[in-house]
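Consider one such protein record:
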Amino acid sequence: MRKNYQLEKRKYVIGGFILVIAVIYLCRLFGLQIQDDRYKDYADNNAFLRKTVYPSRGLVYDRNDSLVVYNQPAYDVMMIPRDVHDFDTLDFCHTLSISLDDFRARIAAMKGARNYSSYTPQVLITHLSVTDYGKLQEKLYRYPGFFIQKRILREYAYDIAANVLGNIREVSEADIKRDPYYQSGDYCGDLGIEKSYDRFLRGVKGKEILIRDVRGRIRGRFEDGARDIAPVSGKDIRLSLDIKLQEYAESLMVNKIGAVVAIEPSTGEILAMVSSPNYRPSKLVGRERGKNYKALNNDPQKPLFDRALMAAYPPGSTFKPSQGLILLEEGIVNLQTAYPCYHGFISGRLRVGCHGHGSPIALKPALQTSCNAYFCWGFKNMVDKRSKYGNSAKAFEVWKNHLVSLGYGYALGVDLPFEGRGFIPNAKWYDKVYGEGHWSANTIISVSIGQGEIMATPLQIANLCATVANRGWFITPHVVKEIQDTLIDEKYRTRRIPTINQQYFDDVAEGMRMAVTGGTCRLANLPDVEVCGKTGTAQNPHGRDHSAFIGFAPYHDPKIAVCVYVENAGFGATYGVPIGSLVIEKYLKGQIDPSRKYIEERMLTSNTIIYSGVKKH
């Protein structure tokens, strides 16, 4: 019989088809069972409930070990949408004291979130009160698919220093993308040390695996908790702040706009950092956080704006110590060099006013009396000295670089977010404004006395004072003194040396001492404490002048350096000096001398906001 090759070929074709189909099935099964965990996860979700166990956030203490920030329990209502079955929504809403419309709005918002999944726990309501938590816990069995997630909220032993402490908030999508530690519903630091030290404070999350029956009810821990992971608490932090001094400084700045910064010169540790007007940190805790944040953000006084750290002010005459240092370093003046002051600096038709005092005048008495003319003449003789520098632009760059080494013009690197940099122009900036080669010292003479384009933050001004107190060095200012079991960043332990020879700092410090004993800072003269200081009255084109002061004490063994800046408060001696001297006295002596109580009372009760154009609450 003749062989049918056509049938023979068909057999191989059919076999090939069967083989291909078998391979496809095998590949699909391999993908489903080995590579794709979705179905396993779906099955596991039916049998298990994996709960995140949040760690206790690190505690915060002040430099004297007073507890400042601690934790209290908070409870969120969570739901796994696919596990939710028919339930009495009216009873649920009544139990949680919310309306039905509010409940529906929350469900809609949850489903509209980018990371929504019906298989994973979703946050429905945050920050249950203890009362609502108790009521819901008793009825929770009635609401399948719902459970309670324990979290923590911050509590404040001292409801102050909001600009330093910061707060915590729910993470955004940007936070989740930036840091894999976070997932939807987590909390992270927002502002202050809560933000800058979040990775230390937050700890490590744990996990709890619970067994569920076919109806979704919890029946206990999987393998008696053998697979659970315990959370690791966050690290405690010790601040450099003296919380009592912070509280006192804040009280002196009530009804005033401005800042107070106090630094321990030998360590760079910030003893107090006040931004005024401020707010109570407890305002940004709990269910009312969003509403309160919006109100603070819309407040015309801008309490969320940290003036101590971010505001750029003309430093005024507090800038003169730095000018004296530069003039000495560059050999433009010595201690015997004297300049005339005819009630101000006069050069051709240019005049910069000054108050009455002896003339001609040398450096130390110029600091004592805050003579404008002396520093204008010194600046002019430096910037226009072509025999040494070649031209004004090159001389100005030398001047500017000295200032940068003293901490002006750039962020210092404090361990808080959003530090401002102030502004010190360079020669190219003036070339753009006036044209290359078309400007000289007279064109920009106001910068010599801390006016014009010069801007600095109160932190930078306080740091300059600390540098003079140390006689020629500083450590980058910081608000955290210690982290549990962790060494603080090296830059907060390392001295920074300016480009000024250290021998000149003694001369400037003596001039600042003279300002207190017989000059513009007489009100800062304390019994039994040698205080050095410098006033500043910064011109303000938008209203009354700003009142400023820098000071340190004791003269020969400095323990504290202070900058005070009060907007629209007039002369430096009117508000800056008394507030600064009270802060120094409170820190060094623990109390205010009875002979100075009248000054304290005046500062506690005075109101300068009325001069700012912003209405008082």
Remarks:
- The mean pLDDT is 89.
- The chain has two domains: 48-239, 243-293+300-611.
